[in-house]
Amino acid sequence: MCGRFALYSAYPRLSRALRLPLEQAGELTPRYNVVPGTWITVVRHPGDEAPLVMDEAWWGYRPHWAREAAPEPINATVEKVATSRYFKAAFAHHRCLVPADGWYEWLPLSGKKQPHFLCRKDREPLWLAGIWSERPDGGPGCAILTEPARGVAREIHERMPLALGEESLAPWLDPQLTGRETLRRVVHHLPDERLTHWPVSMRVNRPANEGAELLEPAPE
């Protein structure tokens, strides 16, 4: 799954890494402990003819037509996102990217859960596949796609966010591509061998804790 991540790269670095024409709406504040139920940075087309923009969406997906008691998931699985009634319209028409410098997962260890930070070996930003929809309150809400864990990520958790390879960013964001099979042919995840991880401080367990020290390797 993906329930916590970090984004501390500045806009110029993200813009260079994306390599697509992009407009910025607002400033980015470095965040080392991004939690669900908050506004997060996304890259999306806010309308059919709108330019690509980096703005914010609420991390919690509830489409505008859903009832008040409807679920508000933070993740959507790759196995069901294209066919589930709750997600399929967003998958076809409202895909987005969630930039992240890495994400956290917890490994059961000696009766406790040890947090690990997972990121690219070269420390370049990750681009997590997401979907968004207009929420009942009129604002955008999003969910991050997850897939079965691959490579070193399997050492920590059975699932992981769908991190896309560089060549897949443009087609994932292309509003003209709506078919499941078409997207399956042109969109691919980041190769396994580019990922690494290490254990970090238990301080990340508290959502209120922030700062670069959360990423420092924990003592053995």
TrEMBL record:
Pfam families: SRAP. Keywords: Covalent protein-DNA linkage, DNA damage, DNA-binding, Hydrolase, Lyase, Protease. Coiled coil: none annotated. It comes from the Bacteria. GO terms for molecular function: lyase activity; peptidase activity; single-stranded DNA binding. Its EC number is 3.4.-.-. SUPFAM superfamilies: BB1717-like. One of its GO terms (biological process) is proteolysis. Belongs to the SOS response-associated peptidase family. This is Abasic site processing protein. The lineage of its organism: Bacteria, Pseudomonadati, Pseudomonadota, Gammaproteobacteria, Oceanospirillales.
